[in-house]
């Protein structure tokens, strides 16, 4: 998901053939995960493990970035993500990033396309460190 999501959401002009290649690979992987979560509530057992946290880091981004409406296309994965989100201390990915509205000019919690906006507007890459709160 990471490469596909990055190209789809954060590059100004992604190559459609490359996106298609990554989408097909991702569809295959998600199909395997969907079948797994239809049978088992978490990645390795009946309880969450570090494997669940690792996997969820790739699948917890908004549909606008990923191109997947998981509750519709992969309901078992969406249900698993719901179980992860119900764990104590869970935060959505963009809630973990300070100052996420720095480049987008939006209020926190709105569109997460700050990097794409910054790239398209010519903000130097090293200036993007400020997005993560270091500048």
Describe the structure.
This protein is an all-alpha fold. It has two domains: 2-90, Up-down Bundle (Glutathione S-transferase Yfyf (Class Pi), Chain A, domain 2); 99-132, no CATH class. It contains seven helices and no strands. It has helices spanning 2-10, 16-39, 50-59, 63-66, 70-73, 75-85, 114-120. Helix 2 packs across helix 6. The model is unreliable at 102-135 (pLDDT under 50).
Domain module tally: 2
Structural class: mainly alpha
Shape verdict: globular
Q: What's the β-strand tally? A: 0
Helix content: 40-55%
Whole-Å distance between the termini? Answer: 28 Å
Order of helices and strands: HHHHHHH
Gist?
The protein is mainly α and 135 residues long. It is 51% helix and 0% strand.
Which features characterize this protein?
mainly alpha; Glutathione S-transferase Yfyf (Class Pi), Chain A, domain 2; globular; 135 residues; 2 domains; disordered C terminus
Helix-strand layout with pairing:
Blueprint: H1 2-10, H2 16-39, H3 50-59, H4 63-66, H5 70-73, H6 75-85, H7 114-120
Helix pairs in contact: 1-2, 2-6
């Amino acid at each position: 998901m990471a490469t596909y999501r990055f190209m789809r959401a954060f590059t100004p002009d992604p190559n459609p053939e490359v996106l298609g290649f990554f989408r097909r690979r991702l569809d295959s992987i998600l199909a395997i995960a969907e079948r797994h979560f239809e049978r088992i509530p978490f990645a390795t057992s009946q309880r969450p493990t570090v494997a669940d946290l690792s996997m969820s880091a790739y699948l917890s981004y908004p549909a606008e970035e990923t191109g997947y409406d998981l509750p519709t296309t992969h309901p078992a994965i969406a249900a698993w993500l719901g179980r992860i989100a119900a764990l104590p201390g869970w935060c959505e990915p963009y809630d973990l990033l300070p100052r996420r509205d720095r480049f987008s000019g939006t209020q926190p919690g709105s569109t997460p396309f700050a990097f794409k906006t910054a790239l398209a507007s010519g903000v130097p890459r090293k200036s993007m460190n400020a997005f993560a709160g270091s500048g």
